[in-house]
Records
---
Amino acid sequence: MASSSCGGDTARLLACRDGKAAAHLKLASVFVIFITSVVGISLPVMLARIFQGRPSYDKVVLIIKCFAAGVILSTSLVHVLPEAFAALSDCHVASRHPWKDFPFSGLVTLIGVLLALLVDLTASSHVDSHSITPPYTPVRGQEEFPTDPKKSAEFRVETAVLSVSCHDRQGEELQVKVKQRLVSQVLEIGIIFHSVIIGVTMGMSQNQCTIRPLIAALSFHQIFEGLGLGGCIAQAGFSFATTTYMCFMFAVTTPMGIVLGMIIFSATGYDDSSANALIMEGLLGSLSSGILIYMALVDLIAVDFFHNKMMASTPFLKKASYIALTLGSISMSILAIWA
């Protein structure tokens, strides 16, 4: 959302810069964007709960998650990264040292990818080292224990194999669930970074000609981004309280960013075209872009398309999931025309 220009139409810019009108628009946008964010993130969560317990539940959640992965990948590559690059390439920033000497947007994006990988590795190691073996449960009752010595030995071997297999399967399911929850939480952190940047930049802007179309564009933006995050939250199987908290945090982040941007402008006089604001926008945008790229490609797309047994055994589901991934990417990419 770096919108400053060093040699643009000065008369038009001055006509659009109306602080009072811009403040009214921003206050209206706080409520509009909050409502659309709630709708976007709640929809996949409610669909998952409606289908829960039905035979198609796992398939519906998987397709929602693939659509979500497409939205998140497009958000990082089509929205966040170009905006971060534009902010650090702005003439107010690029004329300074060291910003004109090095591609900091790419570097900070790389740091975001490595940081997400470090969190992933650390959390996975913690889960592996603290995994709890489920208590032993007998496969057969005492009355079924054979009396013949030969059959008794075979029975003990069979029971041991079944018990180990059951324990391994339960342990694997537990690790997958913990992994899904970790992915959802790290993903929300990356999206919150992005939402704060959007909100603060819009809150600092005094250009009513820019704010007016942004309200509609960001409303759709929040709906699709909410669908993305909500799909991951739905699959992770959080408790009702945790799900509500995560949905609420996503819904309020952009409105809070707008209010924070208005406060920053009132206190400092910095608007969205000042060099300091552009540098902060570029660095935070690059960092969140790296986190989102890693999460979309590694923890969402790669896990579902290459390590999901249900998708591997159902060719139709794999095709449907790929179509959902493509539709999610296209839907979010089209919004880049306006925001």
---
Amino acid sequence: MGNCFSFSISVDQAVSRSWDCVVGQARYICKLEQNLQALEAEAKRLTEQRDDVNRRVLLAKEQLMEPLKKVEGWLQRVEKEIKEVEQIIEDAPAQINNLCLGGYFSKSFCSSYKLGKKVVQKTRDVANLRTEGDFLDVAERCPAASVVVRPSEPTVGLESTFDKVWAWLTDEGSNIIGLYGMGGVGKTTLLNHINNELGRRRNNFDIVIWATVSKNHTVEKVQDEIGRKIGYSDERWKHKSCDEKAIDILAVLSKMKFVLLLDDIWERVDLVKVGIPIPRQGHGSKLIFTTRSLGVCGQMEAPKKIMVDCLVPEKAWELFQIKVGEETLDSHSQIRGLAKEVAEECKGLPLALITIGRAMSSKKTLEQWEYGRRILRRSVASHVLPGMRKEVYPLLKFSYDSLPDDKLKSCFLYCALFPEDFLIRKWELIDYWIAEGFLDENDSICDRNEGHNIICTLLDSCLLEEVDVEHVKMHDVIRDMALWIASEIEKEKYIVETSAQLTDAPEIENWGMIKRLSLMNNEIQSLRGTPDCPHLQTLFLENNYLQSMRLAKDFFQNMVSLTVLNLSKNLFLTELPVGISNLVSLQCLNISGTLVRELPMELSSLSRLKCLNLETTLNLETVPEKLIYGFSRLQVLRMGRTGLCTSRAINGNVSFSRLECLECLKYLNALTLTICSDSALEGFLSSNHLQGCTEELYLDQLEDDSLFSLKSLCLPPMKRLQCLSFKFTSMEEVKINWEKEGRKIQTPYDFPTSVIASEKTFYNLWTVDIAHCSNLKDITWIIFAPNLRNLFVSDCPRMEEIISEGGVAAMTGDVILFEKLQNLILSSLPELKSIHRFAQSFPCLDVIEIVHCPKLRKIPLSCNGAKGRRIIIRGKQQWWSELEWEDESARDTFLSSFQPIS
């Protein structure tokens, strides 16, 4: 019985399972039509979902976002799945026709069964895909390329051109893009905007490199600009050959996806010689350049050429309104109408609109605007010249014509003697203006102030551009216009051949007509012959290869009117040509940066000399005292960082005589000086005259040569001092002596710097450089230099604080420390524990570098001061890791600012 019963159960189970299988298979067939409808509905919903996701992806791409990989994979799977569903639906009618017995059976059972099963499975797959496609985000922002943000004018009217460039920039098929158009049309502004947007928008580039090429460029100059960006800037690399530099650049850029922006190309740049991998399709790197010539675009093999044209009238008027300002436009009911006419005369040229708009921004009377319109129209009609001279120079000349007097016009034209993109030092420009007689001679100190005022006027007129507190430069189009004005309008014969790679002085047919000649930045080695140029007043030979033995003895013989002679930065010049003694009209002699060893007594014939620049003449050993006494009209004497240390007489004996002879220069108003002994420093500190005109003071390797022993340096209030340097001194403290005019500030702490000061004791002090001062413990006195921009301190083994706690406690009133500081460099200060007790905002700080300061655990950076600014912090990785912060948020704020150095 038991066995029989067991068998019965087994048979029942088998029958049951078989029946379930048959029923299941039948269900695939009998519900085939119903399941197909469900599949179609599910597929339709998936298609709609796919379209929605695609739309979100497209919008994200327009915002320069990168689709997520999981989204791209899902879309690919959806496309495959939809194609399979469509195939199933296409094959279904044949199987439906095979159904019989009310749809419960099929004439082709196996085929119908397989299709029914596939429909059910595909419906599940489609439903699963729909669930997977419920994305919160479909794209993400890519990290921005490494880029240095550049200052730029607003891109009014350039939006469509920018959009076109940007579209091609993100297109894999566009590798080289040329932007061409006339000067002043906005090509550089557009390139600046592209550069800055690459920093703001997310993209796939590793690095963005900017290089200004300019006319008469050299391969080495372009290499150096690129090298600085990719980390090649040390002295060893600078001395490599062009081929070696090209190999280094290629090794770096070939591994990167880069954007190279080349501004102001005048001729083909050989990318191979520079070391730039030529951007090829598929690599992803890009080259964008600006030029004034369509032909250059062809030479650069740019498949994409975009003309940057003048603005349409509506955009031109918009830009002009911005530059003039609503206040001026509304100052009289008729001014807006006149302003539109003036804007129309600019013919849509952005540079003219900006320049003239700013010039008119202060004109608020109807008469001024009517006069401006008349001058503009007359200026355009005055000359019919090809290209730039016909359409641009007469327009830009309006700003020149608007200068209030001939003095400013002469000063402006003088700036064109310098090379393109040259950083002109303000004080050097003023030196030349004084010598040329452009400035009033009633008061020598007022001369310099007047010079600064003229520079400000030219800056306000947009005829010069300010680079920083010490330098200005001239836009190349403005410079070209100035040379055109000088030679063709004012009929002053200017010959300017700068940065032209000349190895010999140019052959000039009519020397007698030349008034000013500039041959700066060439490779001229010799000066031959005796040119007859009685009207030549200015000769610039700076930065050439002039050799003393190859200068004709009589070269200067017939230059009886020469007023300014610039021989600076000729590194092979070891002695001055004897013929210089014939230049009896000379008022400025600049031999800075040469290897001249002595000034010969023959120069005593230069009795009219007003400016003598001996800066960085490291080999200079002899300057006869009688010679200095003979320069009785001298206003400017620059002797900073020379081989001639003040206090040593010609025969080598220690003496105060040189300082005494400087005392006799009653017109002296600008002095830079290197002092090398305690006794000479004592003499300087006792001279109110010399202190009052000193702009740069270098205390270098002070010798203890008298009873005066320098342990405590008591600095007087030198309000004209701009640069102060202490090196290799044994002083223990620095005091500020302000007993006559100021107030004594008491401190509750016994700290080494007793401060007697006024807040503006060193109002013009921009740079402080302290090195190898073995006994200094702090430099708290710098709190009385409110405009300090650069602070360098190194190799001071006992330095414990930059600003001592006692010095901070002594301060009264609202004093903002480090308000203008831009660069703070601290190196090899083993005992340094504090820069300042409290966090500071450092509103202008660009770079802070701290190396080999192991005990400095905190940097006084305020999070609030860093908002919206990019501060670079450089130091060793270990030092950074061990730095202490007030809280985690402070550390996070500056985390991206850190750049480790090896």
---
Amino acid sequence: MKKDVVCLILSYPPLNSQNNGTQRGWIRDVLGITQKAREALYTQEKVKVLELSSEMDKLLSRQIHDIKVHVPSDILVNMCNGLSPGYQAPPEAMLDRCIDDFMIRQISQYIQIPEIQRIVISEVNDKNFLVRLKNLSPIRQIFCLVIRVDVRFCSTVKDIEGRIIEQLAFSNSDRGEAEQLLRSQNFLILLDDFHPWIENLHHLGNGWWNSNNTQKIVLASFQFYPGVPMDLEIRRNHHLLSWELFFRNVGEVLHSSTIQKLAVHVLRQCSGHLRATVLMARALKGVKNVRIWQHALRVIGSAANECVQYCAFYLEMEGTDKVDLLERWMKEDLIGTLGKGEQIVQHLVDAHLLESFANGESVRMQNEIRKELLKFYKAEMNPTLLVELDGRGLTEAPENEAWEEANEMSLMNNKFSKLPDNPNCPKLRVLFLQGNHRLRVISSSFFQCMPILQILHLSETRIKSLPPSFFKLVQLRKFFLRNCELFMELPTEIGELCHLEVLDLEGTDIINLPAAVGKLTNLTRLKLSFCAQTSHCRKDNHSNTIIPQNVISNLLQLKQLSIDVNPEDERWNAALKYIVKEVCCLKRLLFLKLHLPEVLLLNDLWDVASSLNLSCMRFRFIVGRHQKRIISRLSHESAIRFEEQETCLKYLNGEGTPTGIKVVLQQATALFLDRHLTVTSLSEFGIENTKNLKFCVLSECDEIQTILDVDNDRNGVFPSLVYLELHYMKNLRSIWKGQSSQMPSLSNLKVLALHTCPKLDTIFTFSLLIELNSLEELVVEDCPEINSIVTQEVLAEGVGPLQEWYLPKLKRLSLHYMPKLASISDALAIAPELEWLSFYDCPNLKILHLEEVSSCKLKVITGEADWWNGLKWYASELFQPPNLDDIFFPIERYTDLRTQLVEINDLLQAQKQKTEPSQQSGPGDSLRVPSIEFEAGTSSKQKQVAA
């Protein structure tokens, strides 16, 4: 059974295109062992059978390892155990044609392997299936003699052979002549409706085989009977594999009969390709709109497919302007007109393969979608055209021969310290070398024979300079040199690369920009990072100008401009006025990153003479003067989250609420307010100006006493906010002050993190608590005045609970370094979906109410072991004390807390990988750990229930 399951899965793309010679050799070995095992069973040689079984397991495990990348383990186990799919197939005959196609593909592939002589097909539900197989053109080309025989009334092998001879128009007396004819022919005999209980089926046709000819017998049955002794058994129900993968990844939406019909069409268009099936299912997960499914169908198998492939390989991670993408498609001859391209982009957006942003002016691709697409397309590519050796830890680059025929070389994330001196690469268009951290020097002639190279990635290497041959790459369009911290000087020869469209030097340490960059008039993206001018630079006679005048204004095609500077660099402050003026001339600019020490410079970007339109742009603005400090208050993870937002404003060391800041804030989706000197509430910037904010971080704003000071606002407060994080807020006392607004406020908030707020004594008032129906994570650390996350005084006034549960979506709750904490929510029933509950250094928390920890989905509780052992529980009429010891993880006092929490989380993720392979898990899947049982046991926790 296991052998047949493996063979079936290997018939699906992309596995069926991966090294067919190796697969056929594997099948021969398996069939050889199977034949020996039958003979051993017949002679009752038990020891030999065990040896052969062990040998078979080794052979099968080799292929199963590759298969598990595409098929989850539980599906594979069920198939090997003969179980039907776990998900209900659509009713009637909706999938029949699709499944039959997959079966015929498998038969067509394996029928050409000489060692496979007898094939049985079970659970056939179409009486015309064998007729369709018989009439296939490839079958007629392979076999001279194709006959179909009805054997439903045959009860022995001899009866079946007699019916075949009759079908050949021979009598039983002429049996010898019939067998002679069969031995001389390439024959395919199709036996319809046979009975699997017939004995010695493996002897069927023993006298007819001739190794010089292609000869097969295919038996079809409407039922399934395990153990039929054939070379290969094909179960129709196993070919529901694609449907099961699709169902598992697309979700409950597939219960709709209308969506089911469209899903079957998607499966047929994907041709059962395992990666494509999962990819399309994930793109359509939870989508109930029929039109979106129809758009998805238009994408697959159309001209849009090549455009999708282009986006998977070449679309920038942060996205790009839509018009720019269409122009690139036209250059690659993927589309004929911009109108056609617009239509394709819309189809891809509607099918969730691309994501539109910046008011529809730009598009990007989600990382999850990109990864699956890359796997899909790379599996389809000719291996001689794509040399893919990324992430293998190689210390030596490929030999020269490997470079000669390649169109693309993927050599990133290895350990190369040296590259070939002068590889001959007449066809090479794409070269990825990023992530080779040991690569310091590239030979002077390395790029000499790469005449058509268009994309070069050297990011995250240790190179200090570019070799002379680099400037011979006259066809180069995209050059990435990100995070090369030792790279300090860009030669003036860069101006010779006139076709360059992308020059990305973000994360380098260049001293200044050569004036020759102004000659690169095709640039659409320019990203720069400058080091501060030092005495060393002045001694080397480097220019005192960080960016020469008229360089930026020459680059009229620019759509993305990013400039990182050291805030202490006086050259930047000296050049800013003309740089801002030149930036205002860039009519096509869609993304801008700048550091502006003065708010007045921000105003210059939007004056009447400027060509910039803030509402149609993405931006990263740092406004204000930096102050040097040793430790950043913002964690690395939070800084990354901030940078990922579409439009970001970081306001440093500010005073008051300038008009320029308010104007930018209206369009911003992320705000980082750092060390503001005067405001006492975020509301002072204007509630109406924060309606688009999704991400907000406040740090060291010493005068802020409450985040929101609201007085019956009619429009709701922070309606878009998803993430709110506070750090070192010296005088903060509350999150919310004033009456509730008439419209929902903070209704989309998912994460609230409070760090080191020494005077904070109120987190949730009751009126605020009822607004937070979307909150998924709450972190409170080093807030010594908090005794409960819900203010007791409000509940004591007689304002009773209005709903059964509060914080209905809360999944993670972390309470650390809180010496006065005595209760989580003062017995209010909260968090029915809670999965993670972390305590540390909360010495006054000695009793828990079961209403506070009643989630059946709880997987982790952390805290000190002695605190846990001394903890008591209040009894409840509604909730019985669960046994929580099994999910408690002790925290060591003298080991870094964050490190321990990360290790616990990693452990759980590892368990998740074992139970749900990542390849087939959706992005929103939760960790499947057994839920807590409410049993009448005698654990240490249950013995301490307080009366």
